[in-house]
Amino acid sequence: xxxxxxxxxxxxxxxxxxxxxxxxxxxxxxxxxxxxxxxxxxxxxxxxxxxxxxxxxxxxxxxxxxxxxxxxxxxxxxxxxxxxxxxxxxxxxxxxxxxxxxxxxxxxxxxxxxxxxxxxxxx
Length: 123
Fold this sequence. Notes:
This protein has no helices and eleven strands. It is mostly beta strands.
């Protein structure tokens, strides 16, 4: 099993920045594809970004140029740096992990999910 614990969410003004973190435990972190999804009230869960075990990244078009995903295998932690935040970025942000061959943009592509951290962007 894998445990994922997010931290760093909070309230920020539009145009501001926030960095959320996800600490993983339970299996070899460096073997996992890691990612972030988000879900706003009344909306479907949405892909934000992933980083593969080899460090290849992919981000959603809606956050491209503003959000950056990174990982520190020595700390078993994945990060999401969010800049130029907009009110529409307000969501619960979930950290995900999977050990399959390919990283995915689909929620079904991840076996492990954190509890989520709330990010609220005020206008």
